[in-house]
């Protein structure tokens, strides 16, 4: 069969235009990516691509600065002071900070310090899955004085288990203990940055990949100290999105927005991060 005669010639026009305009970009934005596997940048490929999609939408080149979380902590200050100093210099030279997803406790103290730095210095921050759990641990320790607050994943004996194992027990999503795949998040208050970025939507479907979650028993105390949980699942018990009011952009999400980001259709929260990093978020929200 002669397939060529029934196929239209592929139309690469919009791709070519996008690639050409990217090649001509001169300004860039520096993003600190604080993770465990920074030697293996492919581990975070979808996050890197989502950053690229958001940067292109803002006519910027994406400049990802890799920071090994373990270089940021106090132990590194003692044992590898040069690496520690360089890691902090890198963080401070960036316009925003991203803590991506991850498993296991390596690098967690450094990620907590990065989240604290972003919160206190009003540097735009996006915490994805583990990155959201990190911001909850950091906030509980700093704002509520719960010094040993932790996730049960990292310290099963913690007196303040602000992040706990919460299996789903769903009839429709069988399998192991991992909460996987698309789930709906409902925004509690449409007046939050995340809902506005998602086009003033009252809900959003994003993909998940986690076992631990914010402990609902601590939500009230965390909120009374200023953290806002603006999105949750349909039961209202699983916290999906947090924001810090009075901060230019401090957002944590239990889901992985990077998985649905596409060239020409960047993820709303990555776009928000880059807009905030370049001082353009408010203008964007005002237009929406
Ligand atoms: N994908 C992730 O970041 C997972 C976070 C955490 N380790 C959990 O299992 O909940």
UniProtKB/TrEMBL annotation:
One of its GO terms (biological process) is CTP biosynthetic process. Residues 41-274 form the Glutamine amidotransferase domain. It catalyses: UTP + L-glutamine + ATP + H2O = CTP + L-glutamate + ADP + phosphate + 2 H(+). It holds the Pfam family GATase. Its EC number is 6.3.4.2. It comes from the Eukaryota. Keywords: ATP-binding, Glutamine amidotransferase, Ligase, Nucleotide-binding, Pyrimidine biosynthesis. The keyword RNA-binding does not apply. Pathway: Pyrimidine metabolism; CTP biosynthesis via de novo pathway; CTP from UDP: step 2/2. One of its GO terms (molecular function) is ATP binding. Gene3D superfamilies: 3.40.50.880. The keyword Ligase applies. Belongs to the CTP synthase family. This is CTP synthase (glutamine hydrolyzing).
